[in-house]
Amino acid sequence: MPHTRAADGTKIAFDVVGEGDPLLLLSGQANARRWWDPIRADFAAGYRTIAVDAVGTGESDEPADGRYSIARFAEDVLAVLDELGVTRTHVYGTSMGGRIAQRIALEHPDRIGALVLGCTSPGGAGALLAAPEVVRPLALSKRQAREALLDLMFTPEYVRHHTGPYHVLGDPDMSLAARRGHKRASDGHDAWDELHRITAPTLVLHGSDDLFTPVGNAERLAARIPGAELVVVEGARHAYFEEFRAQATPPVLDFLARHPLA
């Protein structure tokens, strides 16, 4: 598996699928790059997709100092791009990956072409959090937590007709320390007062029925980022991009086509 080294020497694993302009795919909290497996072919048909295992997930190492942050994840991703010789790329980040994408767009605007933010939030004072009763079951037994997370990700009808495997329920091989580190990093994200500085053409997508990251976050992001476009996928929950692939992928491909890197 291809890999590079972060500034502190931690191994960062990644893979590349497809040909064309580069498109960086950033996964959700505590999930490896397999998060994108169900829909990656949609993008690899016309783009050179780059997916990364954030530290602590997949085939990447855990950082020796135990440091996890959105800023750290962003710098690790840039190390991957440097390893590949990619100076500029489109970015599609979902959930925590959308938080990482915001940080890259703010700190390294010259590295970003088009920016796509899915099922994510601005953090800070602008974040709309899940209701306590929504997240409470996630702290129960492993079986109960899995069932609760599955319900937050997909509609019951989808689950009835798709037995899996599911790649959006967390990396089963992560250590407890890494899981906690990812949660702290995601919870600590705050770009609310900086969003007006994002200059990349931006598309914001969200499921209308997302209780994990309420859809109001998408509305706030789109209102705060200059010129941002908003697509709400009706009936979709957190994993809108997978269950509602037929409705969610075309707007992204159209947006990228309208904002070529060249």
UniProtKB/TrEMBL annotation:
Gene3D superfamilies of this UniProt entry? alpha/beta hydrolase
**Which InterPro entries does this chain map to?**
AB_hydrolase, AB_hydrolase_1, AB_hydrolase_fold
One MF term in the entry's GO annotations: catalytic activity
- Annotated AB hydrolase-1 domain ranges read 22-243
Q: What PANTHER family does its record include?
A: AB HYDROLASE-1 DOMAIN-CONTAINING PROTEIN, HYDROLASE, ALPHA/BETA FOLD FAMILY PROTEIN
In its UniProt entry, what is this protein called?
Pimeloyl-ACP methyl ester carboxylesterase
Q: What is the lineage of its organism?
A: Bacteria, Bacillati, Actinomycetota, Actinomycetes, Pseudonocardiales
